[in-house]
Amino acid sequence: MDVYGLIGNPVEHSLSPPMHEAGYDALGIDARYVTFEPAASAAAAAVDGAAALGVAGLNVTIPFKRDVLAAVDADPLAERIGAVNTVAFPEDGPPRGYNTDAAGVTRAFEAHDVVLDGTEAVVVGAGGAGRAAAFALADAGATVHVANRTASRAVDLAAAVPDATGGGLDELETHLPEADVLVNATSVGMEADETPVPASLLHADLAVLDAVYTPIETRLLRDAAAAGATTVEGAWMLLYQGVAAFERWTDREAPVAAMNTALRERLE
Ligand code: NAP
To answer: How many domains does the chain have?
Structure first.
């Protein structure tokens, strides 16, 4: 039996175990997916330990996504984003690090028939999810503007992303009227019924992805739907980052429907 896992802290409420195990079951793969909470300073030791124990693949979440970079041979996208959320353990060579949050963003839009190439995109947030979204959208052919509460973080991120610009949340007013795509990559909307984007700036020509997935329908998505925009729930990003990791590890096409059902059963 293969063992896959997730390192993070906290991870007890993670939806990844049921999502991945539904995938193994659907394809008849003899594997289990378990969670680990290493000490805050033990990211590299956890990766080395997993390699020594023959763990087949690891996901990585807060607070380890950046620290794990030092313990793996990171692929160029993960290197540019500055964060690893998926580790593979090839038989010959060191652990390999990937970032599938970026694929989570692009595949979530793709699943909603949103074409990103040639669009004007606005990413709100410049943390881990914001970085993944900004690079993913730029690589898909969008021109990206990053807006963040701490403007300097948005400016720094934009400097690393091709053709991107960055600034404070006040710049949403300038960029959103012309935008085709909007991603909320802040945590606003998770704890309370709040949104980082004034409803008055949303319009029918926007496709809006909210990375927040609890609740499933955030205030931003409600406001976007009311404005006639296309809405993409964060659960789709969560699903497709998992699908991309599953495919990386197993080299097989993931059973997306089975994984989605397992996820949705726990989110509804
Ligand atoms: P992070 O690295 O801690 O970044 C947090 C971001 O939110 C920063 O840009 C921060 O701005 C901003 N922020 C926090 N509180 C704010 C407030 N009150 N007003 C305005 N901005 C605020 O976190 P992360 O890992 O990027 O995660 C962000 C969200 O994405 C979380 O809700 C997480 O669950 C979600 N996420 C979802 C997926 C998925 O698959 N659906 C994947 C990854 C993350 P400052 O820079 O000014 O602090």
So the answer is: 2
